[in-house]
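agent> Task received from the user: take the single chain below, predict its 3D structure, and emit structure tokens. No templates, no multimer pairing.
agent> Plan: (1) validate residues, (2) run structure prediction, (3) serialize to tokens, (4) report one or two observations.
agent> Step 1 OK, no nonstandard residues flagged.
tool_call: predict_structure(input=
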Amino acid sequence: MTSPKPLRKLKKLILKKLRAEPGFMKKIVLRTVLLLVIVTAGIYFFFHYNLYTCFTNEEKAIRLINSFGPYSVLMLIGLQIAQVIIAPIPGEVTGFIGGYLYGPLWGTIYSTIGLTIGSWLAFFLARLFGLPFVEKAISQEHIKKFDYFMEHQGSLVSFILFLLPGFPKDSLCYIMGLSHIKTSHFLLISTVGRLLGTIMLSVAGSFSRNHNNSGLVIVLAISAVAVALAFFYREKWLAMLRERKKRHVHTEM
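)
tool_result: status=success, residues=253
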């Protein structure tokens, strides 16, 4: 029985790599072992400390973070890192808790540290293990949605995608790891792009703790309007960005 065509192509590619790079197989083994260690450690800590409840229940999350006493800040940063790496987990709860526990300034700072580290790790893992890993880490829908922009990448477009609410920014970190963008540029784009949303969540958390209901309502109303606009108009904005990029490419040709 002959091997399927895709499998034969894969075998030829591996043999070609083995001949061209003597250390290719060693790299594959080391990367596989590293990935298994990371995944195993992540699963252990995630379930050992019941971290999954932190992203769905604010009260449990606050109790868990406070239980670490002087190390509670590290726990918050760790949760922010985890919610980026595990892309489907929403980060709104942890951002809100940062402001609730530490105020708008330090809540924003601590959350930003965690988000930046988490974004870098997602970017690094994608760059280290490539497309097969990214296809397991995030949905095919998100890969297809941002495939065009990563193919015709631009710093401004990437920044806009991070800035707009409602976009899967954590998935975008993985996808950008497959591009040729420099790590320093990625960190700048992702950190600054997330900052406004982080500030809003931290301010909302602080207002909630201080029972400033009027301030909380204002922040939530602004956030709701921003999310609604992004939800109803994001496809139109994406189409406009595609057309603008096509026109720019045609003019250069």
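agent> Step 4: summary for the user.
Residues 21-252 form one domain.
agent> Done.
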